[in-house]
Amino acid sequence: MKIAIDAMGGDHAPGEIVKGALQAAEVYPDLELILVGQEAVLKKDFSHLPQNVSIHHASEVMEMDESVENLRKKRDSSIWVATKLVKENQADAVVSAGSTAAQMASATLLLKRIKGIDRPAISTLYPTLKGGKVILDIGANTNIEPKQLVQFALMGKTYAEVILKIPHPRVALLSNGTEEGKGNEIVVEAHQLLKDANLNFIGNIEGRDIPAGDYDVVVCDGFVGNVVLKLSEGLAGALFTLLKNEFKKDLRGKVGAALLMPGLKNIKKMMDYAEVGGAPLLGVKGVSIICHGSSKARAIQNAVRVARDCVTGRFVEQVEKSILGEGGN
Q1: Alpha-carbon distance 264 to 271, whole Å?
Q2: Do residues 151 and 240 share a domain?
Q3: CATH code for the domain of 184
């Protein structure tokens, strides 16, 4: 299996990206990892690569804040070239921590959408009291139609089945109330469509229900999903800062911190996006793993694991079957 890694994409590229790839190469010696980026830069810092890691030159870089329109002018950018390797069957998956917009555009233009999918969606695993749960969309689509929420639900269900190994995943719809008639027109109509779909649909949940984890997949539009994700990240950081400040106030706090530290470290690890690594861009005909822009080596290593699981689990084929089962055309 070959996995292309956008070595130039991300806040800590190329150093942390390559380090993560090298860690993955050691953990998964059966994989062939292709570092896509500026060869001179990569060889300067990493002159000795293991046998299962190679470099594929790409002369340009899509910056994190760069307009996706520039992708048309940068057809030799690392994300475009890495995705093209998948399109041409020279790689089985692509992993990137670079510009999400550029990665989505590359995947949509080169790999194309799965038949029956109107728009690709970005998913993530959300840490809850009952383990990681799938939430989508988290930023790709801010204006959607009810039927597209059903498509998201079908893709999320397949992600939960194939990658998380959850049989008959419970699917919920995010709304401002649990009652069937709650929500705007799009959410209300989507609720009815989801009831009739081939899903284990458990109805609406509210934002406060997300951390409890009494579901396996929750669907929403990309605007709401991104707000939920960013608010959760900020809140988690703020809580840990408050705890740290309290522990530093006096001797009793410091003693308490020493006793609680192992548990706090476990909680922090559970909420760390680096443990997830990355999530597949759902709805395209190829495996494209989107990582957090600030990903470091451990996150990239875990993202390679996710890519490997998607390929071995024939994730794209399973999504196609799920969509066709709902009459996609």
Answers
A1: 11
A2: yes
A3: 3.40.718.10
Complete DSSP assignment for 68-115: GGGGGT-TTBHHHHHHHHHHTTS-SEEEE-S-HHHHHHHIIIII-BPT
Vertex 218, ends 212 and 222: CA angle to 5°?
A: 120
Shared domain for 131 and 205, answered yes or no, is yes
Domain that holds residue 179: 121-275
**156 close to 318: Cβ distance less than 8 angstroms:** no
| Alpha carbon distance, N-terminus to C-terminus of the chain | 31
pLDDT, one tens digit per residue, over 273-312 is 555 668 889 999 999 999 988 889 999 999 999 999 999 9
CA–CA separation, 116 vs 262, rounded Å? 47
Is residue 139 located within the same domain as residue 257? yes
Give the whole-angstrom CA distance, residue 138 versus residue 107.
17
* Sign, Cα dihedral of 215, 220, 222, 223: negative
Question: Which tokens belong to 142?
Answer: 């801010």
**In which region does residue 290 sit, left (phi positive, over 0), alpha (psi from -120 to 50) or beta (all else)?**
beta
Classified as helix, coil or strand, 247 is helix
SS3 228: helix
Does the CA dihedral 14-15-17-21 come out positive or negative?
A: positive
pTM: 0.84
Spatial strand order in the sheet of 53-57: 53-57, 32-37, 2-6, 93-96, 287-291, 278-282, 121-128, 131-136, 217-219, 170-174, 200-205
